[in-house]
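Encode chain A's predicted structure.
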Amino acid sequence: MNVRVLSKNLIHAPAFRAVILFIIVVLVLAIGQPATLGNFGIVLSSVVDVWLVALALTPLLILGEIDLSVGATMAVAAGVTVQSSDNLLFGIAIAISTGLVIGLINGLLVVKVGINSFVTTLGMMIALQGLALAITGGEPIPVENTAAALAFSNPILAGITPDILVAISITLFLLYFISNMRSGRDLFAIGSNPDAAMAAGIPVARRKILSFVLCSAFSAVAGAVITLNLVAASPILGSTVMLMAIAAAVIGGARLSGGRGSILGSAIGAVAIGGINVGLQMAGFDTTVVDIIVGSILFLAIVFTKDIKKILRLPSISFRGKNVSLQPSTEGVINHV
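Encoded structure for chain A:
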């Protein structure tokens, strides 16, 4: 493989943008805020919620679907976790089970009833927001077992806390799922062309339901983890996570129309966004400025992708009354770097 082909493959790898952004963020922080790099564990811990939700959304984005209820699922999971805070493991198990049920309902409504995933999860988001308020009474609820919650935030090794280990574990699981399990590899074929995937014998309905279930379950894990970090459950937990997570996934190579995505890219994108967030806050910028910058990065990532497609698009020719594009198709290519 010559250098030109290797360079082209790297540039078109799903995680390429995330890696470039991560390198830029590290270089800028090394120059402007070197103390941030010295507290890299804090940076990772501060973005665990976005990291986990970005991972949760990636399989759905590969399918060309979306889940707008991930933030509200976090809030409900947080409320459920503290209801059994004298036994945190039991509370976390119930919270994850709640996420599984939420994902199953979303999946069945989309697949069996035929409601668009945007509309379905928008309705679910509103319902869950009300449920979170009902569970918490509209106020933060402290975790009774404070010692156990605080222990969850204590570094284990080199500044790595248990919440970071949870995020790394789920990243590795989804990497294996997408790369080595048939049900994970099928997602790319379904996202590229669902009709062709169905004709090829791929169980499209089951794959979509599974992806919705995984998304809500991992969002519930994020809610439980952040509750332990904050030592309290907030009814508005996750209210800003969804857009940040989508930004991380898109920067990491996910395509909103489906057929493309990267677990590793989503994780790197989330960490890069976390670096931007912490770096700007340490520099004294307001959180609103951080939101503007992250939103701009997401916008540029989408526009950049669209522009590249326009640049590479070849003209179509007419053949017996039908337009035939000369653009080589990459829809069926499996991208999961």
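The mean pLDDT is 81.
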